[in-house]
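REQUEST ID: PR-0412
SUBMITTED BY: lab tech R.K.
PRIORITY: routine
TASK: structure prediction, single protein chain
INPUT:
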Amino acid sequence: MKQLLKNHTMIILGWFFVLLGLLGVLLPVLPTTPFMIVAAALFAKSSPRFHQMLLNNRWFGKVLRDWEERGVVSRRIKVRATMLIILTFSISIVMLHQQLGLQLMLLGIAITLLFFLWRIKESEGHST
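STATUS: complete
OUTPUT:
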């Protein structure tokens, strides 16, 4: 019973992250790839069928397979993520024009995100 509840919870969370990832396709402030990676990880532990569905998806399946198999992300994905981080954090920082503490906090978060993003190994010879 406990395992069944755990599986159902992971499946529900997996679909939640898939939905967030799909929203990320439409809204530039949400990053699609990390949400899909989390969904794939949840499905890998709870639903082989849903896991394979993500890995075989024609739009983001290759990115997920690269991450699962080799722990790599393409340079193109990194560049797109960098541009989105810079754009969204810049807008937020400008909107908080008279709140220096919050601006500095956002700048620190953005720098930290970029630091960790660029430490991820890149796939060799792949430009997806």
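NOTES: The helical segments are 2-26, 32-46, 48-55, 61-70, 75-95, 100-119.
REVIEWED BY: pending
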